[in-house]
């Protein structure tokens, strides 16, 4: 006899997906109240942790999104206290536990930055400052920089109007100096072999627009040799092109990235053992776009700085775009100097031979 299964009218066979959802609801329903609440917050916490952990996989093909994430990655940690407030408000144990994931990821990425890495001593003090073309007190800025005690001082964004003021204000402390366009180098040690460096900026019509940077059509980077008791020190002073965040184009870094590549090639070609790169790079060295430079030079802040060393904007620094990078020297300490009349803060470092 053949067995025939029948379906009672109005009672179809249970759908497998419905069964699965019912099972999940039963499992969750069996949890104590604090674990059932705030599951969306818990999911967001886990997503935040995974995003920070896997940030290097964010592609740059669309609007340079990867570089933008690299630049501001430390600030993604602010999502933790926001989600914590939500977890406390919901009295959600699951969300609170899930928050351990982004906390541990953030600490693994930046915990070392918070610790003390600076050491006493150092043979040479380096300093760099984008003095700002719109700086209303260049004389005061010059006095503060001279008082810093730096042996080698790099300045960027020197306007033609303020150039003489800096030369006068720094003359007593620095007997040697050189200026190429808007980039300048002041030194207590002899300076020679000064020449401009082509960072491949495409000036074009941009130099004639109201959005142009100050003196965009002038050279912004120089190379010089500083004579020391331990042999020659090659110094680059650079001011790379600014970046823009545009809803249509994304993170606009094309001109800056060409400058990064040009500097990387110049540093690679240097036969001198000791090389220093000072200046406004308009980007964090954590940005993958700087890999060709950071694979050859070390950031003084990363090696010997305490904290993140943010420099811009001066009123509330959110990112370090002013850099001191070295090759063939050992950073001993690195710090940010007090704000001047510029929209950037100066940076300083001590290095040993």
Automatic annotation (TrEMBL):
The keyword Transit peptide does not apply. The chain crosses the membrane at residues 38-57, 72-89, 96-116. One of its GO terms (biological process) is DNA repair. Residues 127-344 form the Endonuclease/exonuclease/phosphatase domain. GO terms for molecular function: hydrolase activity; metal ion binding; nuclease activity. Its cofactor is Mg(2+); Mn(2+). Keywords: DNA damage, DNA repair, Hydrolase, Magnesium, Membrane, Metal-binding, Nuclease, Transmembrane, Transmembrane helix. PANTHER family: TRAF AND TNF RECEPTOR-ASSOCIATED PROTEIN, TYROSYL-DNA PHOSPHODIESTERASE 2. This is Endonuclease/exonuclease/phosphatase domain-containing protein. It comes from Actinomadura litoris.
């Amino acid at each position: 006899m053949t067995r025939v299964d029948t379906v009672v009218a109005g009672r179809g066979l249970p759908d497998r997906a419905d069964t699965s959802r019912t099972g999940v609801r039963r499992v969750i329903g069996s949890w104590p109240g604090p674990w059932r609440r705030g599951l969306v917050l818990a999911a967001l916490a886990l997503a935040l942790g995974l995003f920070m952990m896997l940030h290097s996989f964010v592609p740059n093909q669309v609007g340079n999104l990867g570089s933008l994430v690299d630049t501001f990655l430390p600030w993604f940690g602010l999502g933790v206290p926001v989600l914590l407030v939500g977890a406390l408000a919901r009295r959600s144990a699951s969300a609170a536990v899930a928050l351990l994931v982004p906390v541990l990821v953030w600490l693994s990425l930046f915990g070392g930055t918070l610790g003390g890495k600076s050491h006493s001593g150092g043979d040479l003090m380096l300093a760099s400052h984008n003095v700002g073309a719109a700086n209303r007190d260049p004389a005061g800025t010059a006095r503060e920089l001279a008082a810093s005690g730096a042996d080698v001082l790099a300045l960027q964004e020197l306007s033609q109007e303020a150039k003489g003021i800096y030369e006068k204000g720094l003359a007593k402390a620095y007997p040697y100096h050189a200026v190429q366009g808007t980039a300048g180098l002041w030194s207590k040690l002899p300076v020679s072999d000064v020449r401009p460096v082509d960072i491949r900026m495409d000036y074009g019509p941009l130099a004639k627009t109201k959005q142009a940077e100050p003196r965009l059509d002038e050279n912004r980077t120089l190379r010089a040799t500083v004579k020391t008791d331990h042999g020659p020190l090659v110094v680059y002073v650079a001011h790379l092109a600014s970046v823009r965040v545009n809803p249509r184009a994304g993170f606009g870094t094309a001109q800056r990235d060409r400058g990064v590549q040009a500097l990387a090639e110049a540093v690679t070609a240097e036969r001198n053992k000791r090389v220093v790169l000072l200046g406004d790079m308009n980007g964090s060295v954590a940005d993958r776009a700087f890999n060709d430079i950071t694979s050859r030079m070390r950031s003084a802040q990363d090696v010997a700085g305490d904290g993140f060393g943010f420099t811009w904007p001066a009123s509330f620094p959110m990112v370090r775009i002013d850099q001191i990078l070295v090759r063939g020297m050992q950073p001993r300490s690195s710090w940010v100097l007090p704000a001047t009349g510029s929209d950037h803060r100066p940076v300083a470092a001590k290095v040993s031979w």
